[in-house]
Amino acid sequence: MVLTRLALTAGVLLASTALASAETLTIATVNNGDMIRMQKLSSEFTAQNPDIELEWVTMEENVLRQKVTTDIATKGGQFDIMTIGTYEVPIWAKQNWLVALDDLGADYDVDDLLPAIRGGLTVDGKLYAAPFYGESSMVMYRTDLFEKAGIDMPDAPTWDFVADAARKITDKDNEIYGVCLRGKAGWGENTAFLSATANSFGARWFDMDWNPQFDTPQWKNTLTFYVDLLNDAGPPGASSNGFNENLALFQSGKCGMWIDATVAASFVTNPAESKVADQVGFAMAPDNGLGKRGNWLWAWSLAVPAGSEKQAAAQKFIGWATSKAYAELVASKEGWANVPPGTRTSLYENAEYQKAAPFAAMTLESIKAADPTKPTVDPVPYVGVQFVAIPEFQGIGTAVGQQFSAALAGTTSVDQALKNAQNLTEREMKRGGYIK
Amino acid sequence: MARETTRNRKLVFTVIGWTIGLTLFFPILWTIITSFKTEGEAIASPPSFVFFQWTLENYFEVQTRSDYFKHAMNSVIISLGSTGLGLLVAIPAAWAMAFSPTKHTKNVLMWMLSTKMLPPVGVLVPIFLIFRDFGLLDTRTGLVAVLMLMNLPIIVWMLYTYFKEIPGEILEAARMDGATLGKEIVYILAPMAVPGIASTLLLNIILAWNEAFWTLNLTAADAAPLSAFIASYSSPEGLFWAKLSAASTMAIAPILVMGWFSQKQLVRGLTFGAVK
Amino acid sequence: MATMHTQNTARLMMSPAVLMLLVWMVVPLGMTLYFSFLRYNLLMPGMEHFTGFGNYEFFLSDPAFFEALANTLLLVGGVLLVTVVGGTFLAILINQPFWGQGIVRLLVIAPFFVMPTVSALVWKNMLMHPVNGLFAWIAHGFGLDPVDWLAVLPLFSITMIVAWGWLPFATLIILTALQSLDQEQQEAAEMDGAGIVSIFTYITLPHLSRALTVVVLIETIFLLSIFAEIYVTTSGGPGTASTNISFLIYAEALLKYDVGSAAAGGVVAIILANIVAIFLIRMIGKNLEA
């Protein structure tokens, strides 16, 4: 009896799920602060567009990436808008998986997008994703700690200076660590940071014939420098810290320096979230005098999968979320400092933004300094600063990141980690048919 | 003298029992306490256990960000649905195996269990493609089906071991007395089988509720249960310990409460034939 | 005649379950087998072609394969050891009369209701975190350096997290078995001056053997393909120190989107699981014979 009733109820409830309203947009996005803010403010959009409803799927970055990639590659059609980055856009656009965005609204002003960012999202002259926020990387440092130690941070420091300062500031008894850097394995985590850093050390992922280069002295220098620095002046457990973990550490006042995404600047200077909001200074990502700085380029962007049946509505939403008007909306609700950065020239020309965001100039300069088409000192066959824009990179980058992470945790030596990285990259590149 | 020893013994066991019990429960307790702290207090050192400003703000924050009740409802439907359907299919099967065993019964049972050894991630792409073609992606129907099939071997086995304990002679006797099959079931077997079925039901609701691979990979928005909801809190965003605790508490609270209230029923049949 | 009749009814009653499981097994397994012979990457559609045993060769020659195999077995073995020994101890403890027994029992079984993702998140961030975790604070209190559990002892830490979740299950099954133990026999032994140890070895343990078998069997089934705890805590690292076979297949399927090699990995995992199963049934299967 109980069972039949149970089964019946289940059946009825199941049947009722099939019907959904025609214009519901399902949006897949990352659980980063700016996206969560967009989700909160989206009621403004639905108020203007009563015929469109929004369903949010907010996930941690890696989970999200798996889900949208599986979905788009198999044409699952579960999402109408996907949040993807500059790595995916060119690869997916070439597969015809994305809709070219040509219907973003009359006042969208595509030419206002920062050229470096726009270039990364354009394939064959068509924009395939609209940048929600863009970022490079830079040094964020604690002015109070630098003052106390009697060190002056230049606007464009060298790696030697950074290493030296980090060691001086470190005070482990009081839980002050000189520098916080990404150590958590993942192609978007430590591999991104180390690839960009390696560029400034003169290293590269592949030579012009796609041979992996981890057996070069440049990579050895990079990794040795990084491991030594974090061991001396980094927080405990650095090998499991990613962007978000380091953000938490910096906000709670435990890092002297943090070299990471420019987008973090507004979080660390926000008094509501950060204990050290008034004591943060900014500088360019360091270099080694080889002509390349260790800063990357990335843009979290909104795109419409080709399988979506609601492309017009989806473009309308994207047009809203990445517009100048959205920036003004955020400014009016939460202040100019919290506007998603790094996408539009007009934002950086806005006097109010410059006043509210002390990091604006440095962010813009960092973004301009990154060149995905010529990322390294020596020539390379690939595009991308902190990634290599080939489909195989996610797998390789994560596996290499695990080796780097192991070297940092001390479970393997730097030499062994690089040897493993070289072997596994060669293996994958052979399988991919790049090398024999 | 003897009473004194018993009393002392009882005291010793009380101390040991409570120490171990509290230690094992501590991670959950700590999560619940932290969920009522502000983010700042959640990482304060030294941590405070009782004397802090209790707040509900994390719960409101989690609720505004992701519609908890929708996900909770999905969890309820999916776990009840898959368990209910599973029992419907498994009861007859287990029944037949227990009362009309053949020489193949053991092998069939072992084969069923071996289907559970298939690592889910190995068959993800095939299942995903099948789901896509049948329009089952992000539907509760699809998840009910998958979770039912996932847990069916355990259900069958658990019921089989339970039914086997029911003495067959009772059936024979009833049949001699001219009882029809229907009466046989209603008056004789049902009362004896109910505890086993109840226990199987509970165990499978728990297993289905906590399943996190298929629920995460086959849903997007509509059908996502609590195990997928927690995925949006699985990496920190700045200071997030209190919010993570609130989301975790919300995800486990319903099943924990259910489990506690029904633990007697759960335990009664949880023998897998291990009791002679 | 009557037997024929019941036999047929029995077959009819079994058929839905058997058929469903057959379909559930044959269809995905068939597809997996088929894919395992294809060069098939989701990110490069239109490039599928037959590749013979290429995927198997690729998967088995992965430098992490043997480590993953060892980790899989270590993880299963470690969790079994902790839960069986701990579960027996806990069951005996809870079976003693003491004040608040009912509440302690509730506390002990609670971890079983916590979903693996949540328990992994809680352990990782709130307890084992080397800066903000409670263990770090306790270490500081004793004047020690906090241990970065998941980086230094990844496999051990994951074993602990998983064992915490499965301990109540083992405890409950052993407890139900204990409760059916003949009290008089035990008391008689006590009268005869048998010590606690010998009572345990000669009376309790033999009585529990079936329960322990069940615990081992069921846990093995679930633990062989453990994934969520690893994914949330260490992502298989550092290096490949906590990668098991499930996680290795995950990397093929959801990082490289290489359906072919993931399928080959799936087939390999099934074969391994069956070897373990046969081994297990040989070893302890006789305990299950009624």
From TrEMBL, chain A:
Its main location: periplasm. Residues 1-20 form the signal peptide. It is found in: Periplasm. Keywords: Signal. It comes from the Bacteria. InterPro entries: Bact_solute-bd_prot1, SBP. The keyword Signal applies. The keyword Repeat does not apply. GO terms for cellular component: periplasmic space. PANTHER family: ARABINOSE-BINDING PROTEIN-RELATED (PTHR43649), DIACETYLCHITOBIOSE BINDING PROTEIN DASA (PTHR43649:SF12). Belongs to the bacterial solute-binding protein 1 family. This is Sugar ABC transporter substrate-binding protein.
Automatic annotation (TrEMBL), chain B:
Keywords: Cell membrane, Membrane, Transmembrane, Transmembrane helix, Transport. The chain crosses the membrane at residues 12-33, 76-96, 108-131, 143-163, 184-209, 240-261. It is found in: Cell membrane. Residues 72-262 form the ABC transmembrane type-1 domain. This is Carbohydrate ABC transporter permease. Belongs to the binding-protein-dependent transport system permease family. Signal peptide: none annotated.
Automatic annotation (TrEMBL), chain C:
This is Sugar ABC transporter permease. The keyword Nuclease does not apply. It comes from the Bacteria. PROSITE patterns: ABC_TM1. Keywords: Cell membrane, Membrane, Transmembrane, Transmembrane helix, Transport. Residues 69-280 form the ABC transmembrane type-1 domain. InterPro entries: MetI-like, MetI-like_sf. Pfam families: BPD_transp_1 (PF00528). The keyword Transmembrane helix applies. Signal peptide: none annotated. One of its GO terms (cellular component) is plasma membrane.
